[in-house]
Amino acid sequence: MRSTVALVGLLAILAGCGQMPPAGPTSVPTAPSTAGTSSPSASSPTAGKLTLGALASRVTQAWGGVRSYRITTTGPIALPAPVATPITSPLASPVASPIVTPLATPVPRSRGTFTSTREVVLPDRQREALSGAGDDDHEAIAVGGELFVRGPLAARIVPGTPPQTWLAIDPAQLPTGSMLARVLGGLPQIPSSPLSALPQRLSPQVVRDLGPVAAGDRACHAYGAADTITTTGTRVDYTIAIDANDLPCFIESSVGGVTQGRAELSDINVPLSIEAPAGATPAAVPPPLATPGTHD
After folding, report:
1. Quick one: which of 36, 125, 215, 218 is 20 to 30 A from 156 by CA?
2. In the CATH hierarchy, which fold is given to the domain comprising 2-37+47-289?
């Protein structure tokens, strides 16, 4: 499970967004942007070839003209395991081990697929919808310094909250790394531009030209790159597709030819309406969700 979570978390770093589930330990920490990285000299083996760093710089430069967009991320998630005699904490994450009685007989976890859709309108408006994550499913809206949440996740914040009732959350109650901040993908912070957190050590890697691909109604060109998860030795392949304007179409991760996660960008610079909901109920974040937490 941890390596699967790590793959999706790594994809989030490359795609410049945050979403469930959070990342486990990987070989790719968040690192400074590749902007300003020197080009290879004429004698370099990468001279005349497109490197991952150069590709990232092109995307970062083109991203400067983006004012609104939608990013849809999908990936696998382990659902809570049923147990013979469960005593599950109401604040347990759907990717965390349930709290059970000592004599309970565990049952292997089932796998599902989560979908996270995030709309961004600069400078400070966002909407996120997460499905497929059980009790962490939600719709969240961030406008300026305000944050609103509804759905199953709201009932974890205030038990008994109806699914359609909006809660108003004080972002100051969500320290970086807290359980709720991670489930909300870092809201209300604006995601960084795609590939801006590419680790410097990957910059010299020459990408593979995978040729033309389609992403919805967009004509794109795909490039291949790879990395390794140090804790498992697993090779992860990435497909990075951009359009003729160097704007990203999608970033996809795979292992052994099997897709593990995909972040697809669409509706770039298309008008998106995001408004704060009326009549939201102020709510305090309970300590278990406001403190740092880990997933297994």
Report:
1. 125
2. outer membrane lipoprotein receptor (LolB), chain A (2.50.20)
Model confidence, pTM: 0.77
- Tell me, what DSSP letter sits at residue 235? E
Domain boundaries, the chain: 2-37+47-289
CB atoms closer than 10 angstroms to residue 38: 7
The distance in angstroms from the start CA to the end CA of the chain is 7
Alpha-carbon span 91 to 108, nearest angstrom: 21
Listed in sequence order, the DSSP H helices in the chain are 2-15, 52-63, 152-157, 179-183, 287-290
Work out the number of other CB atoms within 10 angstroms of the CB of residue 97: 16
The reply to whether omega before 123 is within 30° of 0 (cis) is yes
d(CA 169, CA 161): 14
Sign of CA dihedral 267, 273, 279, 285: positive
SS3 119: strand
Give residue-wise pLDDT tens across range 205-243: 999 999 999 999 999 999 999 999 888 899 999 999 999
Please tell me the distance from the alpha carbon of residue 131 to that of residue 175, in angstroms, as a whole number: 24
Q: What is the pLDDT of residues 68-125, one digit of tens each?
A: 999 999 998 865 544 332 222 222 233 332 223 233 333 444 578 999 999 999 999 9
SS3 156: helix
Residue 201, classified by CB atoms within 10 Å of its CB into exposed (0-12), middle (13-18) or buried (19+), is: exposed
